Amino acid sequence: MKVKCLIFCAVILFAVSVTAAGESVPKSTADEQVGVEVTVYNNNLGLIKDTREVELLVGQGELRFMDVASSIMPVTVHVKSLNYPQDFAVLEQNYEYDLMNADKLLDKYVGKKIKIIDWNEFQDRKDVVEATLLSNNQGQIYQINGEIYLGHPGYKVLPEIPENLIAKPTLMWLYENRVEETHNLEVSYLTENINWKADYVVVLNKDDTSSDISGWVTLDNKSGATYKDARLKLIAGEVHRVEEEIEYMLYAVAEAKSPQFEEEAFFEYHIYDLQRRTTIKDKQTKQISLLEAFDVATQKEFIVYGMQSYFTRLYKEQNPKQRVNVYIKFTNSEDNNLGMPLPAGIMRLYKEDSEGSLQFIGEDKIEHTPKDEEIRLEIGEAFDVVAQRIQTDYKEITTKIYESEWEITLRNHKEEDITVSIVEPLYGNWEVVSSTHPYEKVDAFTIRFDVDVLKDAEVNVKYRIKVGL
Fold first, then answer.
1. Is the full-model pTM beyond 0.85?
2. Separation of alpha carbons 411 and 387, rounded Å
3. Residue 371 burial (CB < 10 Å; 0-12/13-18/19+)?
């Protein structure tokens, strides 16, 4: 019985669709598309360029331009005829987004008569009831044969689709056309809810001196439209949403030359142009390879960070364990087998264990990074390197001048020699009075000790410092 009921309802819906399709206003759908270009920015914004072949009557008329993104920004729509630009103009535009659903359809029939079809399973027949819909607010209320029904079983059948409800978001144009030939209409607009990001995989070698890096673009399309065989461009950078810049981006990009992404500087941003066409479905996450780099020279750092507050108070906690941070750094340059400006994203690091199986060892986020700049990734905390800090002396010379002496013990339990850096942030007028190890003045308020620690060895770094506020 359920199968018969479904077939019957499908026939009714088909008849309703045929009635709706008989409207006189011409339509343009994605079937007439001859080209589409999608430019995606990394701030949840996309620029769509949709070109279609459209036949129009001469004179003024209306056109429904359908299959646009449901997240379209209507004020950004720009239309032009590529082959007859002087003979076509849009005089007026409406964006229709009151999409039909069951509740909205029933809302339009409040106070009107509809049919309710219910299958009588016991008698193997359908019962058709004519009812007046009185309300569709948190459930339906019907008047049937002079009685009031709070809901009623069965399928509701409507005579037609109301004119002011549509199945898909649609641009409605009032146009003026002066030629009988087919127009190639190029429609561009901005849409929200489409975004992209970059992700990177970094595989370190055995001794952490080089790495292989692969980059992936992840495209997330929730704009409410599918872009078939689209030319894809990605914009990396903080784009100020100004109409003049957007229009320039639309026309100034170079033609495709290489198999995957081709990068080029553009204004104050960078464009990554996919050198082939791809289909971007609605509600789809797509990943595309961005780069491959091998034998990238890499360096590992162990760093212990101090705090400014250490040097202006009596440090009561003795022998506290200090966090030993682990960093991986490399230069994004051509001579280091890289050199392409890298979009912001997350770099995830892996390394083979003793059995040759890759294991995840940490991740960090990078900002947009130009070529020839250093990338520095915080990976985690060292297990086999121990740092302890002791304040061995403290003097408050005046209410604004303090002198303290420190001993930092470093112990290396690893199987190889390492270098541990101690970075001390200072402020005010400061002076290193004495030190057992040389230090580097990194900037006006930072000093750094680079200390070599042999395997299974211990090193004590002592220094005395005066700070004036």
1. no
2. 7
3. middle
For domain 299-333+372-468, give the fold. Immunoglobulin-like (2.60.40)
* Cα–Cα dist 85/195, whole Å: 32
One digit per residue, the tens of pLDDT, for the chain of length 469 reads 443 444 344 434 433 443 344 446 788 999 999 999 999 998 899 999 999 999 999 999 999 999 999 899 988 999 999 999 999 999 999 887 655 567 777 888 888 998 988 887 777 788 888 999 999 888 898 899 988 988 888 888 888 877 655 667 789 899 999 999 999 999 999 999 999 999 999 999 999 999 999 999 999 999 999 999 999 999 988 766 544 443 333 333 333 334 378 888 888 888 999 999 999 999 999 999 999 999 999 999 999 999 988 888 887 766 688 999 999 999 999 999 999 999 999 999 999 999 999 999 999 999 999 999 999 999 999 999 999 999 999 999 998 999 999 999 999 999 999 999 999 999 889 999 999 999 999 999 999 999 999 999 999 999 999 999 8
What would the two tokens of residue 117 be? Answer: 């079809």
**Angle, vertex CA 353, rays to CA 351 and CA 356, nearest 5:** 95
Question: Quick check: 274 and 232 in contact, CB under 8 A?
Answer: yes
Residue 189: how many other CB atoms lie within 10 Å: 21
Domain ranges in the chain are 102-157, 299-333+372-468
Are the C-beta atoms of residues 280 and 232 closer than 8 Å to each other?
yes
Distance between CA atoms of residues 414 and 304, nearest Å: 17
